[in-house]
Write a structure and sequence with these properties.
Layout: E1 4-8, E2 26-30, H1 57-66, H2 72-89, H3 92-132
Antiparallel strand pairs: 1-2
Helix pairs in contact: 1-2, 1-3, 2-3
Keywords: Membrane, Transmembrane, Transmembrane helix
Organism: Myotis brandtii (Brandt's bat)
Transmembrane segments: 57-79, 107-131
Length: 134
């Protein structure tokens, strides 16, 4: 087995031998494992995961920047931030309520925004192109 010997001062730290040794020294032999096998005490820390409440903040930010019809994207973003704040405080019910509202507003903002985009595309791209080809 691996064995090392150190000269240790009375504070328990290794010390190089020198001409001025005023502290009491002890010889300690260090083996790989402790010699007496007593009961081993351990501490277990259980870390709880934060609640799995989606706050839809990225989707709300996307709708705020690109499909902000009637400010639905901005209102969805505000509810997403409220949901995140409630989640950080630990109010899971409030976080779920605000997240559901943000999700509903995001769906409406995306649907209305895409409908306006399709109508715009048909009205200003396809219809004038069909008149020019005649």
């Amino acid at each position: 087995m691996f064995k090392e010997e150190y000269e240790v001062n009375n504070l328990g730290s290794p010390q190089n031998p020198g001409p001025e040794m005023f502290k009491e020294e002890h010889k300690v032999s260090v083996l790989g494992a402790p010699q007496n096998s007593g009961p081993v005490m351990s501490t277990v820390v259980h870390v709880q995961d934060e609640p799995g409440v989606p706050d839809h903040i990225v989707w709300s930010l996307f709708n705020t920047l690109y499909f902000n019809i009637c400010c639905l994207g901005f209102v969805a973003f505000a509810y997403s931030v409220k949901s995140r704040d409630r989640k950080m405080v630990g109010d899971v019910i409030g976080a779920q309520s605000h997240a559901a509202t943000a999700k509903c507003l995001n769906i409406w903002a995306l649907t209305v925004g895409l409908a306006v985009l399709v109508i715009f595309f048909i009205r200003f791209i396809i219809i004038p192109a069909s008149y020019n080809s005649l």
